[in-house]
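[job 0412] stage=fold_complex status=start
inputs:
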Amino acid sequence: MSGELAQFLLSGLTVGSIYALVALGFAIIYNASHVINFAQGEFVMIGGMATVWLLAAGLPLALAAVLAVALAALVGLLLARFAVQPARGASVVTLIIITIGAAILLRGLAALVWDKRIHALPAFSGEAPIALAGATLAPQSLWVIGVTALAVAALWGFFNRTLAGKAILAVSHNRLAAQLMGISVQRVLLVSFALSAALGALAGILIAPITFTSWDVGVMLGLKGFAAAILGGMGSGPGAVIGGLLLGLLESLGAGYVSSAYKDAIAFIVMLAVLMLMPGGLLGGRAAERV
Amino acid sequence: MRGLLALAAVVLLAPLALANNYHYEIAILVGLNAIVCVGLNLLIGYAGQISLGHAGFFGIGAYGSAILAARYGWPPLASLAAATAAAALLAWLVGRPILRLRGHYLAMATLGLGIIISIVLTTEDGYTGGPDGMSVPPLAVAGFALAGERAWYWLVGVLLLATVWLALNLIDSPVGRALRALHGSEVAAEVAGIDSARHKLLAFVLSAAIAGLAGALTAHYAGFITPGKATFLHSIELVVMVVFGGLASTFGAVVGAAVLTALPQLLTVFKEYEMVVFGGVMMLTMIFMPKGLVPTLAALAGRRR
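[job 0412] stage=fold_complex status=done
writing structure:
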């Protein structure tokens, strides 16, 4: 394998992991409520920006990161409770506009409370690059890929081994039947928003040392995570992970070999092609177990 | 027709309240946005198909006319017509495969399309000037340049009335009834013999052409265009104007465009809070009056009577 190709693959997997985490967030909320949460990208922003802010306030990195994830989860809860729940049963257009409004509101608040500058987090464990297959790998990339793998494994366990996770799955399969079994659909909605927000914030913290963070970083990351969710098949957990990684690889290879100017367009061209040719996505058509 | 006359009266009498060129400028921007929203309302409000990418068609109109006039020396009227046709042609080409999608999926496809257009406009800086934008020659007919805020005001006013008249007539025609039928239920509409694919495509192409025309006019009026007008955020602003004013209400679209265009201009003191206010208004409107301003007020007035 040539060093150049290996480099593209490694950076594709790194950024693809981030897309996978964001796409999982979309999938969890979509399954629990059939809402597409356009504010998903803002959770990524909150994760990165809150960590930068808490770090500057003198907290150690690990504590700052945990608090940032908790803050995002709280924002997710508030969003579900005060914006999505009151509009239950509203039309698709209404729900789309509510979550886009929430995204704009959160972005505006971030610019007010924090600032409009670009920030970088320090890498978690040094900057010394690791040589691998003729390419160099930043230690932070290992953190991104490793933590994403752990998060995916933890989610799998949550949805398959715990009662709370199974309750969310039940609601996604059949809302009414789940309700008749005594599952609180309201609580499932709240939990799914908090969980998605935490995942998004985690992604934002992991990627901040590599691509930096700022008040408006959520727009592109959110929309690309969304493209990844479509590529994998909306509502499919494994699809979200595969879609995210695949999209990261396509983007990295496309930027390297085709056109770096159009790097940002690749995700949307893929999304449009998937929607036109196979709207179910890679795994959406099959009745696979949905996360 | 009463509504159209009332709107004509507003357009005629508004100059009495417009004290200076800045006021005229706001009025012109309101008019141009209202034209886009009346078109978009045909698609979203009547046909029930969402588009999160109409700023893309607006951008194609604006940049198409600007590039043809500035870089190839076309007379502005010809470039205006060609750019409007280009927006319509693109809508026709992508509309067929995209409009088979529904709900969320249609929203995403139009969103993707809009973003791709905006990335192309930003990247092809040889033609478009990239993120810095480009200057646009003034609108001229047979050598006479249309200059001055007042002249533009009357042009935009007349065009707005023409667009509203067109929309009102379309809605009352068999085509309009077909659009409303397929909004209610596509299956039922098909059973009643309505070619739903053709009608959805018609609403999509018409709204894109109107957005393209308004984009071209905006570019010639401002004399300068940047990719900001073609972004995802501008697409959202357009949809919010339509929904805030009231879906399936042509005058609602006009009112929505007027309120949401004029307010940020008048509240520049609160520049820092603009996004917070805008996002908050979007959420509160949708939660507490999902039908939009004009239909909600009309229902209130009806109840009191």
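[job 0412] summary: The CA atoms of residues 132 and 170 of chain A lie 44 Å apart.
[job 0412] exit 0
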